[in-house]
Design brief:
By secondary structure, the chain is an alpha/beta fold. It folds into 2 domains: about 55 residues, no CATH class; about 325 residues, Glycosidases (TIM Barrel). The protein contains 12 helices and 8 strands. The chain has an 8-stranded parallel beta barrel, surrounded by 5 helices. The chain is globular.
């Protein structure tokens, strides 16, 4: 689902909505519910081989009973005959949302400490889309200059890219070369969080019309990897130097939430891309993940572990926090297929959260994700709009945006107490979006850098 510089604005990510229901399926556009069951893992086929190169107890029982009923109803919805019409989508959204909401309600309130609104914030990374106001690609020299400006700001350590389009990899290599010419240490250069978007859409007429969806997805991934390889020098040293700048590969951006592919397909493609990366270098292991809302990580975790998370949260004494090691049960194939949990969080979508507590919303979601999957969490997409319509307590505005960003970048991991790594969304406003997209056009943070 790569964005094109000569066509309509790219649909590569879910734009936030104003729905009062926090749901992991806010942008579902199909009437066909996903089957979340995952088969036993098997390696990609030969044709996909890499190229040569009342009382508390009563209350807890009631909460657990409600959670069990939600899970049971969700399973029934997944196995029931297909329904048509918008009513089926609304029901699906609500049932998936309820499972996550039940977990959130069990988390004891914790005081959230955040800094006063200040432009001196620091975040792990910022998302970057190399598009102009008219949705066309920025010039390569402009992209290179943008990267240099982001480094000079000192506020981020990495850039998150959503694809390899717009010659963004050559621009990044130019940025590194310019730094080398000034004899700057490579250790201080911006790292890359590189997005690769799997797509099952045939882009050329010579493809096998009988190709499966999985085959098309892996082909699209291979094509984007070749874009990267073609941008590098022939020397192995150049390839290795570039790979060392890759902090993370993110396969897809809310593709499951948007029903772009099946969970079992995503698991297969994650294994496929890891195999491809291993062929590029045996010494450098680049972490791989995907980016999805908490609800997706929740419903794709085995029921046994979800139930145990709910039970442990209900039983906690308020003094000792529950940790992933306290949870019994397998984390499941989906969680096991990634190196780090890539979480997409939309605090503005929750009408009960104001800008000052945007970071608390991120903390809470990351805590639940870590309990479900027992892995580190990275908030891969989190921001706040500077203009547009309000959403309850979530108010838009430049002051509110700065307050939210300050709150988000002050968030900590509930268990370790260490700073929570987040990727701010995003550097530019999406001015190419239509006016009726409202606040979705105004997530840009360039003025703060």
């Amino acid at each position: 689902m790569s964005y094109q510089s000569t066509k309509a604005p790219p649909p590569f990510r879910r734009t936030p909505t104003k729905s009062p229901v926090r749901s992991s399926f806010e942008s579902v556009s199909s009437n066909t519910p996903l089957d979340f069951s995952l088969p036993s893992y098997h390696s990609p086929s030969e044709k996909l081989q890499p190229p040569q190169k009342g009382s508390k107890s009563k209350r807890y029982v009631l909460v657990l009973a409600t959670a069990a009923l939600c899970c049971f109803m969700y399973i029934l919805a997944m196995s029931a005959p297909e329904k048509t019409g918008s009513d089926a989508l609304v029901a699906l959204k609500n049932k998936v949302s309820q499972s996550t909401e039940t977990l959130k309600q069990l988390i004891p309130a914790q005081p959230f400490v955040w800094s006063e609104p200040t432009p001196n914030f620091h975040s792990y990374a910022i998302a970057y889309l190399p598009l102009n106001k008219n949705s066309k690609c920025r010039r390569q020299s402009q992209i290179t200059a943008d990267f240099a400006s982001l480094e000079a700001s000192g506020r981020v350590e990495a850039i998150r890219l959503f694809s390899t389009d717009c010659k963004v990899i050559p621009a990044y290599l130019d940025y590194l070369k310019n730094r080398d010419s000034k004899k700057r240490s490579v250790d201080s250069a911006l790292k890359l969080v590189l997005g690769i978007e799997p797509s099952a859409l045939e882009t050329t007429s010579d493809l096998d019309s009988e190709a499966t969806s999985l085959e098309l997805l892996t082909r699209s991934v291979d094509a984007q990897l070749m874009d990267i390889i073609d941008s590098l020098d022939e020397s192995s040293s150049a390839t290795e130097a570039f790979l060392r700048q890759l902090d993370l590969i993110v396969l897809g951006s809310e593709g499951l939430a948007n029903q772009n592919y099946h969970p079992k397909e995503l698991v297969e493609v994650l294994a496929h891309i890891r195999q491809r990366l291993d062929t590029l270098s045996s010494d450098i292991r680049i972490p791989v993940t995907t980016s999805e809302p908490l609800g997706i990580w929740d419903v794709l975790t085995p029921k046994e572990r979800r139930d145990n998370v709910q039970e442990m949260l209900a039983r906690q004494d308020g003094v000792h926090s529950v940790t992933p090691d306290d949870i019994e049960g397998p984390t499941g194939l989906f969680c096991d297929s990634v190196d780090v949990i890539g979480l997409s969080v939309s605090p503005f979508n929750n009408p009960t959260v104001d800008a000052a507590h945007a970071g608390a919303e991120v903390e809470e979601s990351a805590y639940l994700a870590s309990l479900l999957c027992n892995k580190p969490v990275l908030a891969l997409e989190v921001g706040w709009p500077s203009a547009g319509s309000d959403n309850g307590n979530a108010k838009t505005g430049k002051d509110e945006q700065l307050q939210a960003v300050s709150s988000i970048t002050a968030a900590v991991e509930r268990i370790s107490g260490k700073p929570l790594r987040s990727v701010l969304y995003q550097y530019f406003d999406d001015e190419w979006l239509s006016a009726d997209e409202d606040f979705a056009r105004h997530f840009g943070l360039k003025r703060l850098f």
